[in-house]
Amino acid sequence: NKEATKLAAVPALRALEINGYRGSTFPVALSNLKKLRRLRLGNDLKKKATIGEIIAVVEQLPELEELHVD
Q1: Which H/E stretch holds residue 39?
Q2: What pLDDT, in 10s, does the model give residues 7-66?
Q3: What's the pLDDT score for residue 29?
């Protein structure tokens, strides 16, 4: 989650793809990226999250237009 918290320092980030995630839990700090429009989560990250965790983050992204969970 440290890396996701660092990403929050880039509030204008519009697109993000996460592959090869090594954290032990789903990075809920992604919900701080309020300008994010496109989010792609690789299979390795999907294995660490429940669908509820993913939805909880996505619900907090008002400009999100595309979500891909591979």
Answers
A1: strand 38-41
A2: 778 878 999 998 877 777 778 888 889 999 999 988 766 666 778 888 898 999 999 999
A3: 84
Residues making up the chain, counted from first to last: 70
28's CB contacts (< 8 A; 6+ apart) are 1, 4, 53, 56, 57
Instruction: Give pLDDT tens digits for 21-37.
Output: 777 777 888 888 999 99
Smallest Cα–Cα separation from 36: which of 54, 6, 18, 16?
A: 16
Identify the DSSP state of 53: H
* DSSP character at residue 20: S
Rg (CA), the chain: 11
Burial of 19 (0-12, 13-18, 19+ CB in 10 A): exposed
